[in-house]
Amino acid sequence: MATQKIVLDDKLKRVWDKTYLSLDNNHKTITQREEYRKSMVKNDSSLTNNEKKFLLDELQKIYDKLKIDENSVEKQQCNNCQNWHQAIQYCEFCIRKYLENNFRNWTSGNDEIDKLIKECQQKAVSPRHVIEWINYDQFENIEHLTEGGCATIYTAIWKDGCYDKWNSENQMLERFGRRKVILKRLNNSNSNDAHWFQEVTLSFTLDNTFNSLAMYCGVTNDPSTHDYVLVLDYYDDDLRHFLKDNYHSLTLLKKYKVIYEIACNLNEIHRQNVIHRDLHSGNVLFSARTSQWYIGDLGLSGPVDKPFNSIYGNLPYVAPEVYCGQIYTTKSDIFSIGILMWEVITGETPYGDRDHDTDLAFDIASGYRPTIYENIPLEYATLMKQCWDANPNNRPHANIIFDKMELLIKSLYEEMDRQESFFSKIIDFFKSSSTKNEDNQVIKNTQSNENKSEIYKIKTSKVYTFNFSIQPRNATDEQQA
């Protein structure tokens, strides 16, 4: 009988979350954190042996990448190249040497792109995170998906697929095989304007270890248009469409975890001194394979022909100070997080009944914000209002949002454990079976306006020209109402 494939379902995700959320100051090093989490998995009586093996393998993959950047981690000497490596499942130096030996077998035809790819490959931290030049004939079943402000998006099948694992016996990288991917055609990238190359560089170099961003596999070139095309891992949905299709089945816990993961990812982007500038629900992507959320689209500047002093973005998520002529900062991204928090907790599109025009932009600069319904949890609403404060200095940093969302998630898990313990005692007392509602009161749905016709009105980023001669402000309670 074939062994059933293990997937990261709600049960395993809960165990996974608990191993992370229970870490404390006693686990200071990467090795201590790794061993503690592995120990929790091994000692969890609710897991089968196959489930434990699956989680332990996933933990190893994560910590192998993290260890490579941690000098304090004990190293092992490779039997093949004699270098002292830090990963457990492979030797990162052997992988890099293998890639280097293959340099002569490919070229993009563009010296700058070749140089960038080679530099990325010489910093590869795992088999699964290798940037490549990919010949366009490797793709089949190419289908148009959507249009963006400066790119056209397709789905396709990559015939060979990305690198997947290191074969230490044969000293070679092995490929995944046929795999669905996203192709992002960078419009006008065949021009001499090097602006488009900014996104390629950031996409390939910004997130080598932490998986904060949508994962890029490499770059190709469409011979019919000569435009460069970024190749991304396939993502099942963006946040806006995910909420449209799944909101009524989302528990409060799952909504909190969406914001928790977005804040964690944004913190890593900010930690590397990069501002996103166009963070909205269409740029937050979900992978069913990993059950995680990722931030996408680092175009940053929008179309290359964008007028000087104009704004490129999805209007409801743009910070009010930007409308008033101030520059983007990391705190501008935090305003976007505040709007995303409202969108996730309510399921509605921000200002879904309004046109994206000068009037709406001016109202936002003057303090207009989405309605805070009375059944939105107080701690969450308080954090959300701090994020969209008119004064950027009053907005929290991304790591503060991450920490506060972690506390909210911990409190929900603790409440769930208490309720499970309570029901378990009742079952033991009466010696009978009992069924409880998984979506109980502490994780209830909080939507307040289910029949609103504009609830899922979707708009994309575009270029605006605003420069209001006012100081951004917060509306009073009376004005907001």
Descriptive overview:
The protein is α+β, with helices and mostly antiparallel strands. The chain has three domains: 10-74; 77-233, Phosphorylase Kinase, domain 1 (2-Layer Sandwich), CATH 3.30.200.20; 238-405 and 445-480, Transferase(Phosphotransferase), domain 1 (Orthogonal Bundle). Helix content is 37%, strand content 14%. The protein has 14 helices and 15 strands. α2 (30-42) runs antiparallel to α3 and α8 (252-271) runs antiparallel to α13. It is an enzyme of class 2 (transferase).
List keywords for this structure.
481 residues; alpha+beta; Phosphorylase Kinase, domain 1; 3 domains; three-stranded antiparallel β-sheet; six-stranded mixed β-sheet; 14 helices; globular; Transferase(Phosphotransferase), domain 1
Strand order of the largest sheet: 3-9-10-8-5-4
Rg from alpha-carbon coordinates: 24 Å
Mean pLDDT: 82
Quaternary organization: single chain
Number of strands: 15
Which consecutive residue ranges, at least 5 long each, have pLDDT under 50? Answer: 300-308, 431-444, 446-454
Q: Let me know the CATH homologous superfamily of the largest domain.
A: Transferase(Phosphotransferase) domain 1
- Spell the H/E element sequence: HHHEEHHEEEEEEHEEEHHEEEHHHHHEH
Proportion in β-strands: 5-15%
Sheet with most strands: 6 strands, mixed
Give me the number of helical elements: 14
CATH architecture of the largest domain: Orthogonal Bundle
Structural category is alpha+beta
Terminal CA distance reads 63 Å
Keywords: ATP-binding, Kinase, Magnesium, Metal-binding, Nucleotide-binding, Serine/threonine-protein kinase, Transferase
EC number: 2.7.11.1
Catalytic activity: L-seryl-[protein] + ATP = O-phospho-L-seryl-[protein] + ADP + H(+); L-threonyl-[protein] + ATP = O-phospho-L-threonyl-[protein] + ADP + H(+)
GO molecular function: ATP binding; metal ion binding; protein serine/threonine kinase activity
